[in-house]
Write a sequence for this structure.
């Protein structure tokens, strides 16, 4: 049987998060005296239920992308002129470079 701190270490969560999971009924403990204990099987089941599986097909990934059309007559070149950057620079340059460009530094 695992203690709260053991489960927190296994799941890489804070101990308070484990208590919240218990309160919500997402992780079911056994009481031993005044303390909570967890079976490895229950912890593994919780971890499996909580796992996020990335999209396996490009169509699944595209389902989360929202396309915003450009106003009539506007091109990507117009946006590059307005921002002083290219789309490629924004994608590759990172947030710190983007912030510097916006602030003018």
């Amino acid at each position: 049987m695992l203690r709260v701190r053991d489960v927190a270490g296994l799941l890489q969560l804070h101990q308070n998060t484990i208590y919240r999971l218990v309160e919500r009924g997402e992780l079911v403990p056994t009481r031993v005296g005044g303390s909570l204990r967890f079976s490895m099987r229950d912890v593994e089941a919780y971890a499996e239920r909580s796992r996020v599986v990335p999209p396996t097909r490009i169509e699944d990934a595209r389902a989360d992308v929202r396309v915003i059309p450009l106003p009539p007559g506007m091109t990507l070149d117009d946006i590059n002129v307005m921002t002083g950057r290219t789309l490629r620079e924004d994608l590759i340059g990172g947030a710190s470079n983007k912030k510097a460009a916006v602030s003018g530094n």
